[in-house]
């Protein structure tokens, strides 16, 4: 694909994503935002964020097609996508998603005809009836999501009637979700052996705040008790408790003191709301950033996180009532061994 170069000629500054969306109206602003994040567009031969403000004379290099492709109307099945089916019922499936697998293609993927392997493609390869379930052809049977790096259990409705019912259950918080997170311990509260050895007697702590998009970095979610500090703030509530601890190698400095390992905690978390990146953001806000998380971390252990292929967050358990019957499922994947 040939690259295209254009020069911004204006004495006033303008966001690069807005400028490109106006210049090429066949493509959305989000399309160009994704292209910038994926380094398909460079400014002055450098990677820039979508919020970068162009200045007169800036050179923009575009390394993707600007011909409007024929829109995809059907998601192709992908039989090479691997995932485990935990339970199979006439109305729904319970599947165990591995880390590193995207749940469904993005708008950018569809518009640019660059579909990556996704759970959605793998689902319709194994269960073709899912093609007609849901509200969007790109998300067959997808009623809730997990982040690409998060692994664990998901509910996949097999009929449209079940899809609508589960959607309503998620909206009204009628599905109990339990996650396991492996977190670096920067918490100011000391972990007591009693609470670790007897987690069933140790009550959950509560994190209650607003979560919304960061005004400084639109790729991140942030938390605050003041909604005015956020873009599109929504109330979020997470319950969590520490159930085990150990140490992992981590080379970092505190002042002039060199450290070679850091305490990590196995945390059980139960989100009571369903906000984007909720557990990652909330745990990080109380000094418990996820091991391996490249986005929600701190400067001290940023280099340590590079040693891990993904963040350690598992959708470990699902519990719900469906049509008069109680269901409970537990993931068999093990995020880490604790003694």
List the helices and strands and how they pair.
Layout: E1 4-7, E2 14-15, H1 16-23, H2 29-37, E3 41-43, E4 53-54, E5 59-62, E6 84-88, E7 92-97, H3 107-111, H4 119-126, E8 151-157, H5 160-171, E9 176-184, H6 193-197, E10 205-213, E11 221-224, E12 231-254, E13 257-271, H7 278-285, H8 302-305, E14 313-322, E15 325-330
Parallel strand pairs: 8-14
Antiparallel strand pairs: 1-5, 2-4, 3-5, 6-7, 7-8, 9-13, 9-14, 10-11, 10-12, 12-13, 14-15
Helix pairs in contact: 1-2
Offer a concise description of the structure.
By secondary structure, the protein is of the alpha+beta class. It has helices at 16-23, 29-37, 107-111, 119-126, 160-171, 193-197, 278-285, 302-305; strands spanning 4-7, 14-15, 41-43, 53-54, 59-62, 84-88, 92-97, 151-157, 176-184, 205-213, 221-224, 231-254, 257-271, 313-322, 325-330. It is globular, with a radius of gyration of 22 Å.
What summary fits the major beta sheet? Answer: 10 strands, mixed
Number of separate helices: 8
Overall pLDDT score: 89
CATH topology of the largest domain: Pseudouridine synthase
Give the amount of beta strand, in percent.
25-35%
What is the gyration radius calculated from CA atoms?
22 Å
What pattern of helices and strands is seen along the backbone? EEHHEEEEEHHEHEHEEEEHHEE
Q: What count of structural domains? A: 3
- How many strands appear in the DSSP assignment? 15
Give the overall shape: globular
The CATH class of the largest domain turns out to be: Alpha Beta
What is the quaternary state of this protein?
Answer: single chain
Which regions are unreliable across 5 or more consecutive residues at pLDDT < 50? 191-195
Q: Label the structural class.
A: alpha+beta
N- and C-termini, Cα separation: 53 Å
By CATH, the architecture of the largest domain is named 2-Layer Sandwich
Task: Assign a percent range to the helix content.
Answer: 10-25%
């Amino acid at each position: 694909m040939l690259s295209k170069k254009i020069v911004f000629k204006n004495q006033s500054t303008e966001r690069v994503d807005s400028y490109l969306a106006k210049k090429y109206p066949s493509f959305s602003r989000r399309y160009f935002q994704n292209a910038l994040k994926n380094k398909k567009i460079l400014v002055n031969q450098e990677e820039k964020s979508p919020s970068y403000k162009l200045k007169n004379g800036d050179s923009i290099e575009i390394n993707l097609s600007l011909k409007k492709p024929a829109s995809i109307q059907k998601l192709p099945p992908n039989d090479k996508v691997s995932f485990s089916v935990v339970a199979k019922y006439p109305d729904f499936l319970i599947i165990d998603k591995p880390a590193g697998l995207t749940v469904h293609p993005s708008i950018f993927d569809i518009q640019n005809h660059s579909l990556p392997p996704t759970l959605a493609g793998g689902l319709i390869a194994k269960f073709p009836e899912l093609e007609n379930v849901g509200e969007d052809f790109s998300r067959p049977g997808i009623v809730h999501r997990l982040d690409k790096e998060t692994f664990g259990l998901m509910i996949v409705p097999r009929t449209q009637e079940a899809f609508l019912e589960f959607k309503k259950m998620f909206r009204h918080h009628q599905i109990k979700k339990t996650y396991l997170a492996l977190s670096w311990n920067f918490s100011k509260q000391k972990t007591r052996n009693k609470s670790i050895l007897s987690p069933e007697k140790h009550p959950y702590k509560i994190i209650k705040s607003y979560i919304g998009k960061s005004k400084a970095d639109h790729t991140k979610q942030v938390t605050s008790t003041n909604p005015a500090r956020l873009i599109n703030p929504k109330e979020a509530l997470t319950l969590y408790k520490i159930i085990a601890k150990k140490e992992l190698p981590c080379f970092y400095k505190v002042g002039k003191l060199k450290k070679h390992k850091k305490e990590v905690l196995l945390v059980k978390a139960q989100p009571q709301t369903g906000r984007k990146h909720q557990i990652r953001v909330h745990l990080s806000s109380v000094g418990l950033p996820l091991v391996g998380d490249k986005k929600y971390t701190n400067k001290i252990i940023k280099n340590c996180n590079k040693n891990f292929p993904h963040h350690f967050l598992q959708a470990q358990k699902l519990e719900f009532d469906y049509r008069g019957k109680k269901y409970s499922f537990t993931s068999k994947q093990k995020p880490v061994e604790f003694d």
